[in-house]
Specification:
The protein is mainly α. About 75% of the residues lie in helices and about 5% in strands. It has a single domain, classed as Protein Binding, DinI Protein, Chain A (2-Layer Sandwich). It has six helices and two strands; from the N terminus they run H-E-H-H-H-H-E-H. A two-stranded parallel sheet has the order 1-2.
Length: about 180
Amino acid sequence: MKMMHCAGRMMNMTRRVITAMILGVILVLPAADAAQGAEKTGVVDFGKIMQQMPETKRAEATLQATVTPLQKEFDRLKQDFEKAVAAYKQQAAGMTKAAREQKEKELNIKGQAVQKYQQDKFGRGGVVDKKEQELVAPIRQKALASVQSVAQKEGFTLVLDKSAMIYGTPDHDLTVKVMNQLNIK
């Protein structure tokens, strides 16, 4: 399940890159059209390229190696908290009001510690997020450089992600050429 979460995070990262590219194109395209009438536009399936790169598979394995012990520790903390809550519920009727308040305070602190651990390790800006950024950034740069290289060789002045394309002819799809340059089969 955690592997699917990591893959989901990787896809979310790819979606963010795609969204940024689309937004950039939307903002730049009208000005570019006004400046030049003979632009050649191509498309690539950036998500497919990223997913097929061997570096991405290694990054996913490295990320999983980082996530596994953190997830085990989180599961242990959560289970300890749940056991403490269950024990409190069983004993609450026989406790004095002061003892109940003290135990509830302890449980609240323990619950907050579990949430803090989860946020620090798995939340935005947490250990896993930072590790993912560290692993994915050079891969994304390599893919973008390859897209740029192929586009320049083929005479394309603008390359969009395929997900932003509404209509286009297959001869403007640079995905296979980029994958060949990256030695992806």
